[in-house]
Amino acid sequence: MSVIYGKVVSLIISERFGPVVEKIVSFLFKCQCSPLLYIKRGTELPLSKIKESLCVLIKYRLVNFKPNKNENLANYSLNVENVLLMLRYPYYLNHAKKLFGDQSEMIIEEVLQKGFCSASELIIKVFDKLCNNEERSLTLSQVKEKLVYLVTAKYLTRVPYAKEDKPVPLLTVDEKELTSLPNIDIKTLVMHRKDNSVELPDKNIYWTVNFDRFHQDMRDKIIVAAFNKKFDENAGEIIKIFLRQMYIRTDPWADVSNPVPALEVKDILRKQISASHSLAFFDQYINIISQETSSLLRKAGEASGGSYQIFLKEAFTQFAWELVEQIVLEKYDSKAARIFRLVKLKPYIEPDQLQQLAMIPAKDAKKLSYQLYEDNFLHIQELRKASANNGPVKNFTLFHIKLESVVRMLLETCYKTLFNTMTRCNHEKLQNKRIIDKKHRIDTILMGMKAQNATEEQMADIEDMITLPEKEILENISRIIKKFNTVELEIDQTIFMLQMFLVYQKVN
Predict the structure, then answer these.
(1) What are the residue boundaries of the RNA polymerase III subunit RPC82-related helix-turn-helix domain, all occurrences included (predicted)?
(2) CA separation for the pair 132, 150 (Å, rounded)
(3) Interatomic CA distance for residues 119 and 146, integer angstroms
């Protein structure tokens, strides 16, 4: 893990948990795995502060622990991937809202804010929030139904727990328990809301967000969007159904699916009212999709009777190539992109041959090819060939591309861009801290006055405490921060695409 990656992690933690926790995270990032006393020695923080910080980090699944050799001490390690996922929380909330509605969004939000929560507590807290938002017609049973659906669909999963009493417990959970909610009695929930002394039966059974399930949807969305863009929405709908049927037969993260019958997909389309066009031209769509360059869908053998397999590894390899080509085009120009595509088509190519085939002036071709080499988009392989009779040795220089190396280099560039964006955003907030704090204080006063049923004139007097020049500055700051937040999300999308390629490289 690189230095810039560590800086991004430290910045995220510092924004959300403060400097003390950030110091511990920075130490764990460097040491990877360390016991408590080593953390104290490395950070020079009080032991009580370290313990408190580690509890918070473990609660949010940002730090893992396991027994040391003597099994009485714990070694702590940083879960770096989960730290970066904190930038993706807005996507999780938006996705839950689009799929299942406001209640599901609030359930996911509550779990993300607390790290983990019991099912009964979740139902009560979300119900109370919705009642405060004047949704009086809502019932506890309706919130419970949403929670059950989120657990059944694996968007929420059971938190591992200790089955044996040990100094350093091993946290495990059975596969059946991951999506098995305990029996929740609505009458008990009603009694608990009236009297807190009434115990909830599942108070020690906790649930947390299953990031993998959201990432599965993100991955499918990328695939469907690619086919929507390349063909039309009917092709995207067919691919979406194939992916859905794949999960019945295959592990969601397998690089190749088990065969999915085309007739099964056709039957599902037949039940959809809006799918008349894709149903009428189903065979043509399947033929075109199966011949497409990404190789996502292929016929499963000659004697399979119209079954198709989904090749996710090949698809994301193709997506990675296209992404890299687009980056080369935007960073340099069309000539550089042409050179890059030529090297891709011919795995090993000499500079002279490259200049001829690219149909670019020799000087420009040489400059661009070596610029791409300098920036690690191209790599060089040197070959030596000895001539007869002990003559001079001839050297051959060949250009080629190591896609995995290029993807890792681009990931580093993304982390650097992310760090610069977040730093600049924090700088803007710091420069205008006085005005932002003043706005927050006035908003707090207005909320209090609204709760006390203050008149509109009284509210207007408080609002006038912010002058017109200050309002203009606040609008400008809001616009800048919104722009930076959008950039962060777009960078994260690129990071996700590159990470998907690397995930499928590791499958085999």
Answers:
(1) 8-65
(2) 23
(3) 11
